[in-house]
Write a structure and sequence with these properties.
single chain; 100 residues; mainly alpha; 53% helix; 0% strand; rod-shaped
Length: 100
Amino acid sequence: MRYQKANEIMPEELVELIQKYIDGEYIYIPRKQENKKTWGERTGAREERSLRDRSIFLDYSTGACVSDLAKQYYLSEKSIQRIVLQERKNMGQGKTSKVT
């Protein structure tokens, strides 16, 4: 998102009407509902995080311990535990044992 000059994109009458409510300050005009994007959709951050979480789960599944994963991925041990449990749930394995 970038700033645009109202007087360059809007009719003069509309700019004057808006100035009655807010003069020389910033105003955010939200997207239309049908044009909204979900978090990470534009940047790919959601997909990157999903790949990272799968990688953490695979590492854990092949014997890596939570504390080592926390150091490797720069996350807290609680975050690693949450990710492992969520990935287990996503894969249909359920919550069969405590994550340590």
